Amino acid sequence: MSESRPKHKTYSPEEIAAVRQRLAALREAEDLSYRAIGAESGVPAGTISGWLVNKYAGDNGNIAARVERWLANRAG
């Protein structure tokens, strides 16, 4: 028997917005391209660009979790 567990924590719209804001600030501060972020984070560049402007139609919580994990690992 396998348990059904969520792949990531459930993010509120406010939490997703906060992760977006952190990524946008880092992108601007370090002049990072979507391609560079995608290569480092494992999230496709097209997904990152759509997600940052709240136009991503997929699981925004999943992307927030992946970006947040990448941001934490990057900060060391």
- Count of individual beta strands: 0
Backbone shape: globular
**Major sheet description:** none
The helix content is 55-70%
Number of helices: 4
Secondary-structure element string: HHHH
Verbal overview:
This protein has helices spanning 13-30, 34-41, 45-52, 60-75. The chain has 76 residues and is mainly alpha-helical. The longest helix is centred in the first third of the chain and has 18 residues, at 13-30. Helix 2 crosses helix 3 (45-52). It is globular and about 30 Å long. The relative contact order is 0.19. The protein has 4 helices and no strands.
Can I get a quick summary?
The chain is mainly alpha-helical.
Task: Show the helix and strand layout.
Elements: H1 13-30, H2 34-41, H3 45-52, H4 60-75
Helix pairs in contact: 1-4, 2-3
Keywords:
76 residues, mainly alpha, globular
